[in-house]
């Protein structure tokens, strides 16, 4: 196996790179501008999203058999993409897929790479130790009093996910405080933190649960939910009691720091069975 890693923003690509280097499967690394800053990787080719032809040429030159997409890549403004010839040829289909939603767009992009002869490999296949396991992560248990909020948040997250809206939901005392859309989890949690204290929890009385779930419609080879230190900081600032996700359906980034911050703040992190 020879993996071509196409890296977006965030910390996940660094973990995938390290794991692939350790097992000797990394053939080349392509960092997508402007989502990855110069110097983030020691050996990376920096290319734009619109340089599809050059990306594929580099992957083939490195004799890649598999392609792994990892990291944050926001939906581009297609009027500013500056596509190369190969991207121009595929642009009408890409734009049509984008009109159907983010999941349809991502599935279309994966198919384009598969049609070039590459097999798509997910980040979780490369570094399985990043996955959230079943049960509580850390020293803070999930009190029974918060289970109702957790399950309702999961139910709503599944519903908005089926509509390709987002992956995250915050519920407190049975009331939906926020749903995630294009702004992402961090911005959503900032909105929760700005709500009146009567609606949300506080540093002394934590209330509410963030659920992050895989969308029912999405291709799980890309864009799984991620929990990391910044998630904990923002959830804590919003007065939440904890975070839940599907066991095996979310990454835990910077695990040691993430758990330490959650323990210090008194937040629980729990992996729930997939059926939930």
From TrEMBL:
Domain LpxI N-terminal, first and last residues per copy: 2-130
Domain LpxI C-terminal: 134-269
Domain of life: Bacteria
Pfam families: LpxI_C (PF06230), LpxI_N (PF17930)
Record protein name field: UDP-2,3-diacylglucosamine pyrophosphatase
Organism name: Litorimonas cladophorae
